[in-house]
């Protein structure tokens, strides 16, 4: 059984500079719907309560690897796969090293602390994600690396969706041995809930940025009260009322329900399908295993009878363990994929729960506003 | 944005009456927030003995060159003494190549400095960025200055330049900086990020946790309530003749109020019930599926310890499947309603 200490993350929290948030948003939205990936740089600050990881800058990975031998139309098809595999691609390791080397010259904290990826509707738990993160976490000097997941479609509808994840230690040990058979899962007690550990995120601004935000976009008016507008047109052109980038963001009050539900059900169906395939694989394996075992038992009884006969006739006995050479047991399929499907479905259902919580509140609000006295019941 | 600018056509370079079409039109600059954030970050990381640091601006330019959008930037090391200035050209070239690999659409548009001062060195660097070949030629290079003096507001200005000087040698290290208007622009997706970042500005520790969906909603509702409160306060003050009335504001409020849709209560009730049922159904199904998959994963790994052998898992797996198929139908039915 995995004890809790082994699962505890060496990182207590992740602190992200505002610059990194904006860069990730920009890169992700401009690349959408292709997933965007990039590298995070920063430093880790150990303390008694646990390491705090500070992400102070980031840069995107090139979306596609230019290869002359490939035709152009093939590129388009694999743009998504290429981008998703970028963090562990060989060509990008060089790119990353070069970039970090150059950044060090201008006093940026030049230590790779992880990577980021963009996703849509929380659809990110897959083999690619796990492989990328495992690739980084495996390296001894980068044990503190995190994966930041930015959800483009959910962030467009109000609140920012940015999460930090790490693979748990127990998952990493299984992953290193590449063992995801039934038996090893029983032994390690690994469940899909234990694959990813979420780490709390804190957004941090520098002093200069705070100062800048206070003067954005125009310095506060000198007069205590504004003049009254002389006409309606005046009101819509007043720089103080129209062009404020930090005006309250009321996107969270948006009432579009159906697109979200439709997409979520689609994704859930996909997950069920994947689960079905895994289950079929497992069943096929079990059937063929049972068949082989039946054959082996038949062979063993036959050999035993033969030996008994030989004993009676005082002949030398035949080897009874010879079956290991004659029969080959089928290989058990890896259970990793079904674990990931489980984790993915959990992600979806949590997302739907959060959505249902906010949307039902909003809907009751709308009904209360439109139907006078509708609050009575 | 209340500043007014006078635009004058300007010659672009000395003695270039070439056939090449020269852009002499005024330039409008839009800046995306992440570029500014990056400049400020660079300013706070400058070497202790340097007053200002510089870097390259990347972005896109409209076809005729009259609109420039600054999307990204990177720092370039340079040393500045009273006599001379030295910019690391190799660094600039390498970094530009790296950036072009990840974002091929963003080209060199100009440079920034983190002080408001414009001096001879500024002109020299400006001419470097605007030169033919590697520079922004035939478009003018944009120069952005951001004041980063401690204790003062951050002020951002943008300039383009025109050549000046009687001889070629003088022209190489001098130019006239012409201020151009700029605005800070951001997309819809960046709004949520900016809002969060702005939320941390009034806090002492300058940091903030990412709120959950419900917290964001709560905040939005609270701010709406507060605004309504303010408006209704104002209206009642006007009615009591305590505040000064404004016909434009009144008209605006009337227009806003008339936006409320007029629908029958029965229809609202019907729509409401339909949608809330959809939401709850999908939420319920998602959780049911989660439980089912959890169960199936557990059964698949737990059978051996129960002594039932592999067969148990087989039959359970078989039994689960038709049930799940049933669910799928149920769900697609729910979607249609």
From TrEMBL, chain A:
Spans through the membrane: none
Protein's UniProt keywords contain Protein biosynthesis: yes
A single BP term in Gene Ontology: formation of cytoplasmic translation initiation complex
InterPro entries from the UniProt entry: eIF3h, eIF3h_C, JAMM/MPN+_dom, JAMM_MPN+_peptidase_M67A, MPN
Major location (coarse): cytoplasm
One GO CC annotation: eukaryotic translation initiation factor 3 complex
Domain of life according to the entry: Eukaryota
Domain MPN, first and last residues per copy: 14-171
Subcellular location: Cytoplasm
UniProt KW keywords: Cytoplasm, Initiation factor, Protein biosynthesis
An example Gene Ontology molecular-function term: translation initiation factor activity
Family statement: Belongs to the eIF-3 subunit H family.
Subunit annotation: Component of the eukaryotic translation initiation factor 3 (eIF-3) complex.
Task performed by this protein: Component of the eukaryotic translation initiation factor 3 (eIF-3) complex, which is involved in protein synthesis of a specialized repertoire of mRNAs and, together with other initiation factors, stimulates binding of mRNA and methionyl-tRNAi to the 40S ribosome. The eIF-3 complex specifically targets and initiates translation of a subset of mRNAs involved in cell proliferation.
Name listed for the protein in its UniProt record: Eukaryotic translation initiation factor 3 subunit H
Organism (species): Neohortaea acidophila
Automatic annotation (TrEMBL), chain B:
Protein name per UniProt: Eukaryotic translation initiation factor 3 subunit F
Domain of life (superkingdom): Eukaryota
Organism from which the protein derives: Neohortaea acidophila
Ranges of Low complexity composition bias in the record: 327-337
Listed CDD domains: MPN_eIF3f
Single Gene Ontology MF annotation: translation initiation factor activity
Sorted UniProt keywords: Cytoplasm, Initiation factor, Protein biosynthesis
Family of this protein: Belongs to the eIF-3 subunit F family.
Gene Ontology BP, a term: formation of cytoplasmic translation initiation complex
Subunit structure as annotated in this protein's UniProt entry: Component of the eukaryotic translation initiation factor 3 (eIF-3) complex.
GO cellular component, one term: eukaryotic 43S preinitiation complex
InterPro entries (UniProt xref): eIF3f, EIF3F/CSN6-like_C, JAMM/MPN+_dom, MPN
Subcellular location field: Cytoplasm
Role of this protein: Component of the eukaryotic translation initiation factor 3 (eIF-3) complex, which is involved in protein synthesis of a specialized repertoire of mRNAs and, together with other initiation factors, stimulates binding of mRNA and methionyl-tRNAi to the 40S ribosome. The eIF-3 complex specifically targets and initiates translation of a subset of mRNAs involved in cell proliferation.
Transmembrane segment boundaries: none
Pfam families (alphabetical): JAB, MitMem_reg
HAMAP family: eIF3f (MF_03005)
Region (Disordered): 304-337
Every MPN domain range: 29-165
Chief subcellular location: cytoplasm
């Amino acid at each position: 059984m995995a004890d809790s200490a082994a699962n505890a993350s060496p990182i207590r929290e992740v602190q992200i500079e505002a610059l990194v948030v904006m860069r990730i948003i920009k890169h992700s939205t401009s690349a959408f719907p292709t997933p965007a990936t990039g590298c995070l740089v920063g430093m880790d600050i150990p303390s008694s309560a646990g390491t705090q990881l500070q992400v102070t800058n980031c840069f995107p990975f090139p979306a596609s690897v230019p290869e002359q031998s490939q035709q152009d139309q093939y590129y388009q098809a694999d743009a998504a796969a290429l981008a998703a595999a970028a963090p562990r691609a060989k060509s990008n390791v060089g790119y990353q090293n070069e970039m970090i080397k150059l950044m060090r010259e201008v006093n940026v904290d030049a230590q790779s602390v992880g990577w980021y990826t963009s996703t849509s509707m929380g659809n990110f738990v897959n083999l690619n994600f796990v492989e990328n993160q495992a690739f980084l976490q495996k390296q001894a000097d980068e044990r503190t690396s995190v994966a930041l997941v930015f959800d483009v479609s959910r962030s467009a509808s109000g609140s920012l969706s940015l999460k930090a994840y790490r693979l748990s230690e127990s998952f990493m040990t299984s992953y290193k041995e590449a063992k995801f058979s039934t038996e090893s899962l029983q032994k390690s007690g690994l469940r899909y809930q234990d694959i990813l550990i979420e780490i709390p995120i804190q957004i941090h601004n520098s002093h200069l940025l705070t100062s800048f935000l206070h003067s954005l976009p125009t310095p506060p008016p000198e007069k205590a009260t504004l003049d009254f507008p002389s006409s309606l047109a005046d009101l819509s052109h007043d720089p103080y009322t129209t062009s404020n980038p930090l005006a309250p963001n009321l996107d969270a009050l948006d009432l579009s329900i159906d697109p979200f539900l439709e997409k979520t059900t689609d994704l859930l169906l996909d997950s069920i399908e994947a689960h079905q395939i895994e289950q079929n694989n497992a069943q096929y394996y079990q059937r063929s295993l049972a068949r082989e075992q039946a054959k082996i038992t038949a062979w063993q009884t036959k050999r035993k009878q033969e030996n008994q006969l030989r004993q009676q006739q005082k002949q030398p006995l035949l080897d009874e363990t010879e079956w290991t050479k004659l029969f080959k047991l089928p290989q058990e399929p890896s259970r990793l994929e079904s674990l990931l499907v489980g984790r993915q479905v959990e992600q979806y259902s949590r997302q739907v729960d959060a959505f249902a919580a906010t949307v039902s509140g909003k809907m009751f609000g709308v009904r209360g506003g439109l139907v006078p006295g509708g609050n009575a019941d | 944005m209340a500043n007014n600018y006078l635009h004058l056509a300007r010659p672009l370079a000395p003695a270039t009456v070439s056939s090449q079409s020269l852009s002499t039109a005024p330039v409008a600059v839009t800046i995306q927030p992440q570029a500014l954030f990056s400049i400020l970050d660079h300013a706070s990381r400058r070497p202790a003995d340097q007053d200002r640091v510089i870097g390259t601006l990347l972005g896109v330019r409209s076809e005729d060159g009259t609109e420039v959008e600054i999307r990204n930037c990177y720092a370039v090391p340079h040393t500045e003494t009273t006599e001379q200035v030295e910019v690391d050209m190799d660094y600039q070239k390498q970094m530009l190549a790296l950036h072009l690999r990840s974002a091929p659409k963003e080209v060199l548009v100009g440079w920034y400095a983190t002080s408001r001062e414009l001096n001879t060195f500024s002109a020299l660097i400006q001419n470097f960025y605007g030169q033919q070949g590697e520079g922004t030629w035939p478009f003018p290079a944009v120069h952005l200055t951001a004041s980063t003096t401690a204790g003062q507001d951050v002020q951002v200005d943008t300039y383009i330049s025109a050549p000046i000087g009687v001889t070629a040698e003088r022209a190489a290290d001098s130019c006239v900086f012409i201020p151009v208007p700029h605005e800070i622009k951001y997309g819809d997706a960046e709004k949520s990020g900016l809002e969060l970042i702005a939320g941390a500005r009034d806090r002492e520790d300058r940091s903030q946790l990412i709120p959950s969906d419900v917290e964001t909603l709560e905040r939005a509702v609270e701010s709406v309530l507060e605004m309504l409160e303010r408006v209704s306060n104002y209206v009642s003050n006007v009615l009591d003749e305590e505040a000064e009335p404004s016909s434009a504001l009144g008209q605006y409020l009337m227009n806003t109020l008339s936006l409320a849709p007029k629908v029958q209560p029965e229809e609202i009730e019907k729509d409401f019930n339909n949608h809330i049922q959809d939401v709850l159904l999908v939420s319920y199904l998602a959780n049911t599926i989660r439980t089912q998959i959890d169960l199936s994963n557990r059964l698949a790994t737990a059978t051996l310890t129960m002594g039932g052998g592999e067969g148990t898992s087989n039959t359970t797996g078989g039994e689960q499947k038709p049930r799940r198929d049933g669910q799928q139908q149920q769900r697609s039915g729910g979607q249609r309603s």
